[in-house]
């Protein structure tokens, strides 16, 4: 395809593609809505998703399924802000948490971590953070719910650094919280941002500070004890805190921390502006041959990081989500699927928006498009344009945490049962393990939803009813086959093998894992991500 190189470059440089990571209820939806509002993509809050799919009980899966049409449209949201084209990828939590949530993080260039100031760093944030860390992408922190009394800011920053093992740089510092919230001292811009500008600053949101970082001349705030306090705290941060470093942010070693309130919108705009200033544009992707694929390369390439099935039960359609790594997409273009070497045309593609799906006419590196799929794609597949084959590296596998034994309900229907399992495993919907000797099937997942999707799809797409027996939470550790002794298996540690026949031990608890390591100190155990 003929590509205007300069135009492509300009467009790619405008792209900012990121995910918001957080623990459920920290405020991800609320801040997403505020950003969409600032970008003019929605008019009012409350439109992002059939809110809180997570509130459905697991048995309401069919209800959730019905909602899919809504929630899937929020899988990727885009809007323009100033000169940037912003793509936000949703990372489902609650019962929607699955390996897809992790894999989505493979398709972004940066992450925004939303933390509830009342709760600090929570379990799911930590898990998602680790994946971002492994990728070395920049992470920006939004300490949310400043309109409520939360924990001490310094505690929160210290906890963040300690638990996540990352340096933090407070970009601003709260002046009061909850009812007494006056605003923030914006360290980075050397100004004060008021929560209620009418009350405090003649309607002006920002008050610039002098070179010493203090208010010049007379101001009501100077008489407030919180002002003295914040000056002292900021002074301390400047002396004892980390240095600001653009390079450390870019390398994912330093997270800039912003305090604000997604609900009231306080601090969200200055966060978005500053964040977009630092957030990276689409970066180079390294392929399997260790060759660099540049976003501005003329030829299109991309990889599939998520497949959403059964969005419309009448059509059994699936949508493969593609992160474009280079070049540009135009409807009808010809591409090759690297795994099968098959050529085909990209006709039916779609982009997503909060309120509806739209047909994409044009997209460039950094963007996400959805391709209607009739079963051709697998997660991790590369598609590319041109003669030179491109195959991106495999997406990482994630250590499952929940396990189920599975059997066909009707033993006469083994064929469809095996076919279904094989395909769903290949597609990345679920992980397959077998007990070491008896080869009974065990399914592994990171979220309960994966089992429900599995059961539902086996039934609907492969006409195979399954019986699932929960094994509960397990800690899976891989073991070097040379060190394996089958007597190591006990009622607290089940010996299994993965789908590549590699031995894995499923430990019942942390305690069982420690007991094992004490008993066999020479045995090395590995986990996936
Ligand atoms: P999530 O997507 O991360 O799960 O969180 P979501 O934005 O849905 O927010 C979870 C709850 O926290 C919501 O209240 C929301 O209104 C509230 N919230 C979000 N940001 C702030 C904030 O800055 N300050 C305060 N005080 N609350 C905030 P809810 O009552 O559970 O839901 P809803 O009934 O209001 O939707």
From TrEMBL:
It comes from Atopostipes suicloacalis DSM 15692. One of its GO terms (biological process) is regulation of translational termination. This is Peptide chain release factor 3. It is found in: Cytoplasm. GO terms for molecular function: GTP binding; GTPase activity; translation release factor activity, codon nonspecific; translation release factor activity, codon specific. InterPro entries: EF-G-like_DII, EFG_III/V, G_TR_CS, P-loop_NTPase, PrfC, RF3_C, RF3_dom_3_sf, RF3_GTP-bd. Keywords: Cytoplasm, GTP-binding, Nucleotide-binding, Protein biosynthesis. PROSITE patterns: G_TR_1, G_TR_2. GO terms for cellular component: cytosol. Belongs to the TRAFAC class translation factor GTPase superfamily. Classic translation factor GTPase family. PrfC subfamily. Residues 13-283 form the Tr-type G domain. GTP binds at residues 22-29, 90-94, 144-147. Increases the formation of ribosomal termination complexes and stimulates activities of RF-1 and RF-2. It binds guanine nucleotides and has strong preference for UGA stop codons. It may interact directly with the ribosome. The stimulation of RF-1 and RF-2 is significantly reduced by GTP and GDP, but not by GMP. PANTHER family: PEPTIDE CHAIN RELEASE FACTOR RF3. The keyword ATP-binding does not apply.
């Amino acid at each position: 395809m003929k590509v205007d190189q300069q135009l492509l470059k300009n467009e790619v440089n405008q792209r900012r593609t990121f995910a918001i990571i957080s623990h459920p209820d920290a405020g991800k939806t609320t801040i997403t809505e505020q950003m969409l509002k600032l970008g003019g993509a929605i008019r009012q809050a409350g439109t992002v998703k059939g809110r809180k799919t997570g509130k459905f009980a697991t048995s309401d899966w069919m209800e959730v399924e019905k909602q899919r049409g809504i929630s899937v449209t929020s899988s990727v949201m885009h809007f323009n802000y100033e000169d940037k084209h912003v793509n936000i990828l949703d990372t489902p939590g609650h019962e929607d948490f699955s390996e897809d949530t992790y894999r989505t993080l493979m398709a972004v260039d940066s992450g925004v971590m939303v933390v509830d100031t009342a709760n600090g760093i929570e379990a799911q944030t930590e898990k998602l953070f680790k994946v971002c860390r492994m990728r070395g992408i920049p992470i920006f922190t939004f300490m949310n719910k400043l309109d409520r009394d939360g924990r001490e800011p310094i505690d929160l920053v210290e906890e963040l650094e300690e638990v996540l093992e990352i340096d933090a740089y407070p970009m601003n510092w709260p002046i009061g919280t909850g009812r007494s919230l006056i605003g923030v001292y914006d360290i980075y811009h050397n100004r004060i941002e008021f929560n209620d500008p009418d009350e405090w600053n003649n309607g002006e949101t920002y008050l610039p500070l002098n070179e010493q970082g203090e208010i010049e001349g007379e101001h009501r705030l100077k008489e407030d004890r919180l002002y003295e306090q914040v000056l002292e705290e900021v002074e301390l941060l400047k002396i004892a805190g980390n240095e600001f470093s653009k390079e450390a942010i870019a390398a994912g070693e330093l997270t800039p921390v912003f305090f604000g309130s997604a609900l009231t919108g306080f601090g969200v705009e200055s966060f978005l502006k500053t964040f977009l200033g630092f957030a990276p544009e689409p970066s180079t992707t390294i392929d399997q041959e260790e060759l660099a694929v540049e976003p501005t390369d003329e030829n299109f390439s991309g990889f599939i990081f998520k497949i959403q099935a059964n969005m419309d039960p009448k059509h059994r359609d699936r949508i493969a989500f593609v992160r474009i790594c280079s070049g540009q997409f135009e409807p009808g273009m010809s591409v090759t699927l690297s795994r099968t070497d098959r050529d085909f045309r990209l006709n039916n593609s779609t982009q997503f928006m909060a309120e509806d799906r739209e047909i994409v006419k044009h997209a460039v590196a950094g963007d996400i498009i959805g391709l209607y799929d009739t079963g051709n794609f697998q997660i991790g597949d590369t598609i590319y344009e041109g003669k030179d084959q491109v195959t991106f590296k495999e997406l990482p596998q994630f250590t499952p945490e929940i396990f189920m034994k599975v059997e066909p309900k009707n033993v006469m229907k083994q064929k469809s049962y095996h076919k279904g399992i094989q395909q769903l495993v290949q597609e990345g919907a679920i992980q397959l393990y077998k007990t070491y000797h008896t080869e009974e099937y065990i399914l592994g997942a990171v979220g309960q939803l994966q089992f429900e999707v599995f059961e539902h799809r086996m039934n609907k797409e492969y006409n195979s009813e399954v019986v699932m027996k929960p094994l509960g939470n397990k800690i899976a550790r891989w073991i070097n086959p040379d060190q394996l002794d089958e007597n190591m298996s006990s009622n607290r540690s089940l010996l299994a093998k993965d789908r590549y026949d590699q031995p894995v031990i499923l430990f019942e608890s942390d305690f069982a894992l420690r007991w094992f390591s004490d008993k066999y100190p020479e045995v090395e155990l590995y986990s996936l991500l």
